[in-house]
């Protein structure tokens, strides 16, 4: 699973006023690698990640293997809707991703 557009480098200045400035262009960043068994109930897939304060306008991407009730395995590489969020220093944010099997979509909130 990855976030498609995020800056991972920046400068911090304390004077005349504290603040961050991002450096470079936003890029894709992997946030989870491995297997996760979804059982229909909300559960954390990826734990806390430190991020530079910045304005995000990004989507998430996930590769999903789904086995239906007939035992047929399907592989999908899906991208979520775009999420817009300003990450502020010292705050914690939670993004909820929902995979909807009926129409093969990944929804981010």
Describe the structure.
With 109 residues, this protein is mostly beta strands. Helix content is 0%, strand content 46%. It has no helices and ten strands. The strands form four sheets. A four-stranded antiparallel β-sheet has the order 4-1-6-7, with no helix packed on it. Strand 9 (97-100) and strand 10 (105-108) form a beta hairpin. The chain is elongated and about 65 Å long. The two termini are 15 Å apart.
Oligomer category: single chain
Poorly predicted regions: none
Q: What is the topology, as strand order, of the major beta sheet?
A: 4-1-6-7
Q: What's the tally of helices? A: 0
Strand content: over 45%
Which shape, going by the Cα principal axes?
A: elongated
Q: What structural keywords apply?
A:
10 strands; 109 residues; 4-stranded antiparallel beta sheet; single chain; two-stranded antiparallel ribbon; 0% helix; mainly beta
Write the layout of secondary structure elements.
Elements: E1 2-6, E2 10-13, E3 19-22, E4 27-30, E5 54-58, E6 60-67, E7 73-79, E8 83-87, E9 97-100, E10 105-108
Antiparallel strand pairs: 1-4, 1-6, 2-3, 5-8, 6-7, 9-10
């Amino acid at each position: 699973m990855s976030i498609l557009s995020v800056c991972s480098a920046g400068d911090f200045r304390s004077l005349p006023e504290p603040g961050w400035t991002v450096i470079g262009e936003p890029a894709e960043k992997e946030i989870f690698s491995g297997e996760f068994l979804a059982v229909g109930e909300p559960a954390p897939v990826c734990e806390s990640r430190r991020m530079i304060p910045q304005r995000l306008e990004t989507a998430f991407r996930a590769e999903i293997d789904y086995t239906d009730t007939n035992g047929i395995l399907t592989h999908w590489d899906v991208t979520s809707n775009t999420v817009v969020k300003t990450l502020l220093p010292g705050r914690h944010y939670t993004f909820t991703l929902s995979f909807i099997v009926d129409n093969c979509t990944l929804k981010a909130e």
